[in-house]
Amino acid sequence: MRPVFVFDGDCAFCTRCAEFVRRRVRTEAEVLPWQEADLGELGLSLEDVEGAVQWVDSDIRAAGPDAIAVLLRRAQWYWKPIGALLSLSLVSRLAWPVYRLVARNRHRMPGGTPACAVEQPPA
Q1: Higher confidence at residue 40 or residue 122?
Q2: Cα 25 to chain center, whole Å?
Q3: Origin, by domain of life (predicted)?
């Protein structure tokens, strides 16, 4: 199975980030919006892909910053140290709150649009 990095193709910010990956991060993974993916074949649910980017291959399934870490570890040599750093337990634990903060505010990020807003569960 070819690795797949899945992102939200309806979000302009996410799409810009994915385009950066396609242009600058050489990876064997297919960088694919979840709207074009066969989620069942990948073993992903709508909740999975609406909540975070996903990495899926035959060995590893990861989400959010952990998925980004796998992507970078499997890219060209100069991305590998960043992926390795992001994979460290402490760094990963710190990265998740930052990832969630960015995800909640992605409509405010460069390239973001109101369509990027993620609905928040009621408090």
Answers
A1: 40
A2: 13
A3: Bacteria
Q: Which of 59, 13, 53, 62 is nearest to 34 (CA)?
A: 53
Length of the chain: 123
Distance CA 76, CA 81 (A): 10
What pLDDT sits at residue 113?
A: 57
Stated pTM of the model: 0.87
- What's phi and psi for 91, nearest 5 deg? -65, -45
Write down the pLDDT at residue 112: 57
Q: If you average pLDDT over every residue of the chain, what do you get?
A: 90
